[in-house]
Amino acid sequence: xxxPVFGMDGASARxxxxxxxxxxxxxxxxxxxxxxxxxxVSSTASSRDGLVRVTVDSGGAVTDMTISDDVRRRSGxxxxxxxxxxxxxxxxxxxxxxxxxxxxTVGDDEDTVNAVTDSYRRRFPVPDEDADAEEEQPPDDDGxxxxx
Length: 148
Known about the structure:
Layout: H1 10-39, E1 42-46, E2 52-57, E3 62-67, H2 76-106, H3 110-123, H4 129-132
Antiparallel strand pairs: 1-2, 2-3
Helix pairs in contact: 1-2, 2-3
């Protein structure tokens, strides 16, 4: 956005200021639209085994969670691990959506787009798939399948 040019005749200066003010208003409207659209972002993820499904809002807060009845055949630590890893994957899904909104609405301000996107990446990193991999073990005598 260009700055108004002063030091010209009165009519030209007034026109320059009016154009500059219109640009400022348009930019403010784009930032308000961006803020509104970012606040509407949500992300949903499911555990690989379908045990847990989690939805988070744009701030990463859990807004919905579904746990399958299969939870009865799992240990508490397995359920907790599935819940936590699914929350992390849902949160990691927010970043790209926010980045897309930022690019669409205020993409001409690369510094802001990069700063916000980087902030989301730091807050909600993509989980390490190797550390998070769930491998099924053979069923125990009672037919229960446990995850490592």
